[in-house]
Amino acid sequence: MTADVVLADFFSGCGGTSRGFADAGIAPALAVDWDPDATATFRLNFPTTAVVERDIHDLEGDEIQAALPLSGEQIRLFAGCAPCQPFAGHRHAPTNGDGRSFLLLEFLRFVESLNPELIFVENVPGMQRLIASQGPLAEFVDEVSKTHHVVCGTISSADYGVPQTRRRFVLLASRLGPIDLPPPTHGPGGERPHTTVRDWIGDLPPLAAGQEDPDVSSHRAMRLSSLNLSRIRATPEGGDRRDWPARLWPDCHRGGFDGHTDVYGRLSWDKAAPTLTTKCISYSNGRFGHPDQDRALSVREAARLQTFPTEFKFFGSLASQARQIGNAVPVALARRFGHHLMEHAAQIAGTGTGGAHGPRAPRGDCTPEITGQAA
Q1: Average pLDDT of every residue of the chain
Q2: Which residues of 95-119 are buried (b: 16+ CB within 10 A; e: fewer)?
Q3: Could you tell me the pTM of the whole model?
Q4: Exactly one of 14, 81, 84, 280 is catalytic; which is it?
Q5: Are 102 and 137 in contact (CB under 8 A)?
């Protein structure tokens, strides 16, 4: 038996979560985000999905209810993948100094008022440490566990087909019945090997720095200064600034400084990329140099490493597109979790227990754990 699951994608960004879930058979019915470039990208790729371009602080549950088309026994899945920067590196609860830290509690407002059957949250591993604190995640888990079965953990995206050493915190919650995290599909715990940079960008046409390919959408690389061209030419595949002669060192790296070795680095063809950030097309902001061409990643290459399909279109400046890509949930990761949620819903529907309008679930469990293998 199949299940009819529809998605409300909060903090949707350009649509990585929605695309992955759509590939798994989940209909993206509603997207909510306040970034006009990201919502323009979303509309390009999901022309039939309702988009609410508003600050979530200004939205109420009845507006979401009205914008979310439902019929019959459809199962509602709410995704809440808030901007991750406030949680990165924090060992204690975020403070009021960054309002984004409490976006998860804004998402909680809609979970509590509309009581969806399924919930998906993805963020940086730093969120995991907040479970034991009095921070927003602890409050979120406590409240959701009153009505849903909850499971969470830290996973490696590489174990789900993403060519990045990208560790993520994920949370699933179900009002239908007990749920777990999906097992890995790649690496030692899966049926296939981890994927690599070559697997995802090796077929794209070559470019020079500052050049754009006329036939591949968003296959455009940033310009490089003459100094940075000399630096990248002095960097072998997989290498970094430690391979340069002293005359090319930045002033801040002189005097024996040995930190930040990923900056000005090249990727390796047959390894995973590091975590892509919002600066993923900038040579000086990470290991984002092309493995053997003298430039940084193009926008399309960055999107490929986030497992977006080539036909996915992006709107905005180069910097805006990179920001959208870096903030996105990798499509392959969302697809795997989407399949898992569909299987869960179908299993519950097949047994006749629970269902879209079934009984409230007992308190769940979200004890910190590590799931999957390190990339």
Answers
A1: 87
A2: eeeeeebbbbebbbebbeeeebbbb
A3: 0.89
A4: 84
A5: no
